[in-house]
Amino acid sequence: MSANKGLNLTLKVWRQKSQKEKGQMETYQVSDISPDSSFLEMMDILNEQLIEEGKEPVAFDHDCREGICGSCSMYINGEAHGPGREITTCQLHMREFKNGDTIYIEPWRAKAFPVIKDLVVDRSAFDRIMAAGGFISVNTSGNTQDANAIPIEKANADKAFDAATCIGCGACVASCKNASAMLFVSAKVSQFALLPQGRVEAKERVRNMVKVMDEEGFGNCSNTGACEVECPKGISIENIARMNREYLNATLKGE
Amino acid sequence: MSWVKNTFSSSVGRKFAMALSALFLMIFLLQHFTINFISVLSKDTFNEISHFMGTNALVQFVLQPVLIFAVVYHFVMGFVLEIKNRNAREVKYAMNKGSANSTWFSRNMIVSGAVVLAFLGLHFYDFWIPEINVKYVQGDMSGLLADGSFRYYEELVHKFVDPVRVGIYVVAFVLLSMHLLHGFASAFQSMGARHAKYTPAIKKLGNIYAIAIPAGFIFIALFHHLTSH
């Protein structure tokens, strides 16, 4: 048991009934919140309170609650996933807040991520970008070669792995002042571009993924670096430079 | 040539073109500073170089149009990208803590850029338009005053007599410094030029350039203001 006293908090939460309706910030009070509870548990307590009061609970995305799935998209006190670093909202704990704090809770804000309800946004734009090239074409006839049979430089294997840890949560888009998706797209481009299996389709991949990214209405990259600071997996903007190289190489030098 | 259109209308291509124009402008700024600084050291040398730059065909009819294109492109595309970026987030956050993850300079390139653009308007009114008028409208390519001496140094010093103009000059260069503090290294990132060994050096060089060059321009303005009385 924690010796810490429960927190009394004022929550300002974005409420929006549907994609078509206008939303607004609503104010709620929660009391005696354990500092050891996670942010999502605090949201659960708020929702139980709202249900008891006969009100509509706050809709929010969540799934694994262990920092893997990337579902819990919340913009907390002006930062994606709140004040912590390299964590998702489910890994944020109430001990980060003080008794009497006011906490702003908003959905990811981007034209390409329309709000479905309250804090839930439609991130299928990421799926469409992935469908445009975020894969390698392998003949799965049963004679597929073992990937480990191809020697890969350790440094590149590590960088590809780091890029592949992107969980597609969209915190980069939410944090970017331009709602740019370049950190996400560059991580996906990089994880393949750094490996021999991915080089085969590298030019086509980067061209198609950037094209769809632009069509989806994401903004441009201003190199502020906000995305890598807020990324729960610490994806580096080194990947954005690599994507720029890959794209320019594909468009200026490619066929 | 549809690949050219496709490339330079894409998000990555536009940033690449912004970076290229920025690099050209930074090289231009360095040579502009070098020539201006000579005015502090030697009036005659400054006059000679100014006359060369003002009458040399390569400078006037090749480099000057490229410079004008780079300036216009950089500003126009800067505003185009700003509008596109603003449109990418239709509903703003009720609370946004940009300072938690990025520098003010990087988030406000449009502000520092707009101030520099306003200053360029004054700069063109002060120097470039009169220069074009004398040389290409009046047809006087001699670069001489009525007394037979070169006019360039006198024109430069004359503009720095007014303290208000010097004040505007100083403010504009402080904003340019802020623009460059982010812009220098950012241009390399946009071009994909990033390397574990060289990027830290590029960032340091960028900081030195961003502070030293604008500070140098401010020094030149203050020097002439204080010594011309």
UniProtKB/TrEMBL annotation, chain A:
PROSITE patterns, alphabetized: 2FE2S_FER_1, 4FE4S_FER_2
Assigned keywords, A-Z: 2Fe-2S, 4Fe-4S, Iron, Iron-sulfur, Metal-binding, Oxidoreductase
Cofactor or coenzyme needed: [3Fe-4S] cluster; [4Fe-4S] cluster; [2Fe-2S] cluster
Pfam families: Fer2_3, Fer4_8
Domain 4Fe-4S ferredoxin-type intervals: 157-187
Recorded superkingdom: Bacteria
Keyword Oxidoreductase appears in the UniProt entry: yes
SUPFAM superfamilies the UniProt entry points to: 2Fe-2S ferredoxin-like, alpha-helical ferredoxin
Family: Belongs to the succinate dehydrogenase/fumarate reductase iron-sulfur protein family.
Protein name: Succinate dehydrogenase
GN (gene name): sdhB
Automatic annotation (TrEMBL), chain B:
Domain of life: Bacteria
InterPro entries: Cytochrome_b-558, SQR/QFR_C/D
SUPFAM superfamilies with a match to the protein in the record: Fumarate reductase respiratory complex transmembrane subunits
Bilayer-crossing regions: 58-83, 104-125, 166-188, 208-226
Signal peptide: none
Entry keyword annotation includes Metal-binding: no
Keywords: Membrane, Transmembrane, Transmembrane helix
UniProt protein name: Succinate dehydrogenase
Annotated organism of origin: Roseivirga thermotolerans
Gene: sdhC
